[in-house]
Amino acid sequence: MPSGASGSPRSPRYAYDVWLTRLVDAVVGSDRPVALFGGEPYGVPFVIDALREREGRVAWVSLPNRVRDDPVGQGNALASGINQLTGESLLPHALPYRAHLQLLRQYRHDLQPLWVVAANAGVAPAFARDLLELHDHGYRVVLAFETVTPPAVEGLERCTALGPETLCVSREEADLVIAAGITREHADHLYAEAGGRFTDLVGLAAQAAHLPRMPIPSPLGPMVPRDRGEPVDVPLAVLALQREGRYLEALELAVRAVPDMVEELLRTAGPAYQDEGALPRLSLLLSSLPQPYRSQERTLEWRLLAAIAANEWRGIVEEVDDYLAGFDAPDLRARRAGLYTQGQGFGLAEAAVRTRRTPLTLWQYGRLHPDLARAAELLKESVHLAEEVGTPYDVARNAGGLASTLLHQGQYRRASSWAQYALQVFDQNGLRDGARRLRLFNDLAVARILTGDLAGLRRALEDSQTAIEGSLPDLAATYRSTLAWFEQASGRPEAALDLMRATYDGSPRTTRTRFAYQLVRCLGEFSRHDDAGRVAEEAAELGGDGSEEARLLGVLARGMARAMAGADDAADQLMDVALTRDLIAEQRLSAGLYYLLVNPDGWHRLPADVVEMLKGLHPVALRVLSGPAATFQRVWDAILPVRAELRMEFLGRVSCRLNGRDVPLAPRLAEVALALALNPEGLTREQLNAFLAPEAAAGLSPSGMRATLTRLRGLLPVSDAPYRLTVGYTADILDARRHLEDNRVREAITLLRGPLLPESEAYGVEEQRWVLEEELRQAALAAADPDALFDLADRLGDDPELWSATVTALPPGDPRRALARARLRRATGEGGPYLPGPARA
Amino acid sequence: MTREEALERLAGTWSFELEGDRVMIRDLSLLSAVAAIRREQPIGEPTHVAAGRSLHSAAASGD
Asked: What distance in Å separates the CA atoms of residue A522 and residue A497, rounded to the nearest whole number?
């Protein structure tokens, strides 16, 4: 509501301002979270609306009754409130609200100042309690309750409570609300009748003055007062809800009162429930239908899908099987096939697709096909079919399924392309199923790590993993293991080991085996062979769910550990794994690499497809799946083209290997090595001294220079003046420059693990550091590659030009856009209210 | 899950209050949608007939 009057001083707008100002002042002035009691009769919606008007950054979260006892529904409500405010899809849907609270804590510097106001908070006491914790992280929190007395919500004692005694309109304020021309006695009567309740008083005053009633503000838009609601025939209301895109409510109403509309309505409402992660509620709703409606074909299909999500499918399978005995029902048959193991389900999926080729039947058929090459062809067809006749959800699901199958086959570049496409479809069509998006993104990340394309991954992986930690344990463990591979690829093996250790130790016994071989790999980097052996033995003994896959993963971990320890029996164990095509390519490739460690001449014994995959592996994938270099260099050299004798890395860390052996370089020697690497024609003593000296400081003395060069010559082959390296060499900074010259900005950014010799203050190093960053910056701006821009902008801090280009480059629906906009706002020093982004497609 | 179990678990979670075969609507945008549908509905056509027709056309358009 605008402040200030624009008309008669007795107009309601002016009059409300007095009351509203008093209350908004009380809310804003509180240094604690605020709890408002009394709801609509006491004018709470007007107070929140006025707060929104004054403060600007207010996320008004509406908690409808249907999210009672539903943490995912509560998360959706919170996400809607925040996303509506930012104008972007910052927070995903279909995740428990704790994931959103984690993200809000994570993004606090980008989002604040920000108010979070939860209306009807009594519906979700645990949510309300946890929301209060945001106050400790700098957010302003308001809880609004419909009751006049505090409900049983933990933490309310820490709130500033504004109840009826504060919210009631005083007699003096009432005179401003009640129109002129009404007698004092009549006004007294109206005030007494309203009991000081603002909304009631406004209604009575309008009635007395024959004025129209003020609409009541709400997060969903204005509403007519409670006593002015319009009774509408239920079928008409269902249609209106559907027209407004409010499919969840439309179906709920139809289920209650017009069950004959449900079967048809499910065409639109079913996908909406799925997209919102609300399938458990859909399961309840459809189960509450009377016969014959609950057993109609589409209803039965959605009942099955919803029951699977609610893990209650065993109670419905018999009914589904009875139906399938009498009808073709291809989509229902395809859903049923997914409940069997691959071998059993394949026949059913085949029968379904023979009856009718739909995006669903073809997807399921491809997913369950035992021949992986044929499976990929079928899934590709299923994507085309979904694009022609399906929904965006079908397209994203089928493209994601194809990416997953390609990952299984070790076709990482193709997997990366299809996973990227699935995500684009997902984001650009405003799909909201956050759990599915996270699985898609994880597949994309794995494919990109194993193809050496790391641009833009770190922030997204870290944010996702933090968000779901504690609320989706299985997915969080998967993300941690992907992050571990990312750290391994980025040359941070300590971080990789910490992540895998936490993942392994935190996993239940039955799923530990999944992660044992990755932990063994990470321990191997530090030559901790005894620890690796213990983990492998423990995993093989304790882990697993009794399946063949679990047994083989135990064998893989044990084989890897024993291979590093030089044991002869490792080869047979690893060969068993390499031969098993049911395992994913990453596991078979690991087996192949460790097999070659113990049997360097054993190429011809490995399965042909493993050999082919090994030969196509990116160098980064080799480093991720095996290591350390000191142990595996011989294996890698047999796979990769001939390498230079000397390899040096200066970006973010110092690493130097000469003829396969690590060479430790002290900081000063690393600076000299960098100077020589950048100048293949050689440097004079004066030039080298100018490079090494800090800006405006004296260089090394002649004796100091001699001593430094003598020390370096003890490690690397360096000529007399002009000083130069006398062997063939490569260096990461030179690789990055070559990528930039060839317009491969993603590859260049991938190499930028950190600043050039970050601790060095040598003039030449500082200059090169600045020049390289500027070269990368210009290349990213010119390429307008969203991942490269986001990655670089995130590393370089508050660079308005980079953030502005990032906002432009990121597609609508990408959750990073909201962050990029916030960072741009910060970088340009704009402290004003959010400017919503363009409407989503 | 039986129908009775489902109804029991749904108690207290409904979004709308029913009054017989009608539902009370206060949301202005929803009331506008109701008015628009009424305008499009041929005079004398029962609501449930219009409902069936609209549902089919929504599905056909992929809405």
From this structure: 5
